[in-house]
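User: I'm curious whether this sequence folds into something compact or stays loose and floppy. Could you predict its structure so I can see for myself?
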Amino acid sequence: MSVGRSAAERLEELQSILDELVSRDPDSVILVEGMRDRGALTILGVRGEMVQVQSSDGIMSVAERLARDGRKAIIMTDWDRKGGQLSRLLRNALEANAVPYDERLRQRLVIIAKQDIKDVQSLPSLYSRLVQEVQARKG
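Assistant: Here's the prediction. I'll summarize afterward.
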């Protein structure tokens, strides 16, 4: 459980993050680690282009393609050690190619979720659990 935040507050913050992902700039591409992460975001209502960086031609080629196409990136890697390393590599590649990127949604997720889950693919289960906790407290 995230210290100092109720289930209702965490659910509200998670919903706010999801709303921002759903209503993001159409030029923004969400960068995820793999297929399960992409599937989890889709389950939670996020649509639009998502690139699985683990199954692409490499981080630098993803950054180069985004630069060539005039796109922006939203980094949405896991918050375990590997995800943190991948996030740093992505930031470096995006900066080297002058691709605007946003990592603040990932940072907000880390704050509300890292005590319970360590990856994007677990977000639907966290969302469901928070909804159940909030409903149980109301009932």
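Summary: Strands lie at 28-32, 50-52, 72-75, 101-102. The chain has a mean pLDDT of 94.
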